[in-house]
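New to this. Help decode both lines:
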Amino acid sequence: MSLCHLKMPSLTVVLLCLFLVACGGNGGSNVSNDSDLNNDISDGNDVIDDGDNDSGTASSAYVADYSVATEAVLRAIPDSYIDSARSTLHIAYNHTSHGTHVSYGVFGLPDYKDGDERRFGVTRNSLPEADKLDFHDNEIGGAFQDLSQADADWMSWRHQVRNYLDDPANEAINVMLWSWCNIAGHSVADYLSSMQTLIDEYGPGGSRIGSGVGQTRTTPVTFIFMTGHANTGSNTGEGNPREQASLITDYCNTHHYFCIDYYSIDTHAMDGSYYEDAGDNGNSTSYGGNFYEDWQAAHSLGVDWYENRSTPGGVATYGAHNSQHITANRKAFAFWWVLARIVGYQ
């Protein structure tokens, strides 16, 4: 029997019912039921503020920043989500040199520790293989290779993306990301509006998704945003990497879009210390050297870090513009965290 039907004085009943409605709502649940992969997978502005980048948790539910880019966070993800990402996601990634921090890190990770060959198995520009991540690296043909180039003509860039996604040969692609070269001085506002246009067209429920008139594919696409790399001694001020990154991450947190935050990873040492003058290689005058080189030298290959590779199983190499492996290791960790979030990891 409902408490609202108990025989009580009428004023008491009214007050009690109002209390139950206010507190009962949805059973206290904050879990979203949004099907849009470019929107909520977990609740609202879910922010986990742990202050410790070794704790296995992240500082944002949507932005893969320095707190996400650790092995502890990666290893805390249940195998079921990594397995789901590896077997169901099909990636299209376009970039120039700095973008290799993600791709070389992803290609080296399977050779890191026992079990990683299966857990983080990946192909590059080939037919999909069973139980490996299908990764298409710089296969989006057209005039622009990265976002810095696209800033010359965002309309043409959008057409380039459409041409790729509308090609029946690319129907399986369901995740896309583009990296920046140097983000300084480029129009982040135009980047955000262009990405939003593509999400509105190709995201779940998008205007181009379906089999009707004007619809060009049936598989929706999740777009991953990216910030730009750090510039030595030139990160602050309007149009520079820190401010540009803030515009992008604020937008992603507000709209619940996923983002790999290059700037944050470039400017935070492994202990979480922030060096605002850092460049794209862990180099910082205020630190007094290179915090990533020093950390790598003080830790063990195969235990604490791994060698990045130019292709899966290929030649060991640093990410472009790097003299150490840590930068690309961390960006690969961030990438896999985003993939796990796409398939439902909370």
The chain has two domains: 1-30, 32-342. The first strand starts at residue 63 and ends at 64. The first helix runs from residue 10 to 24.
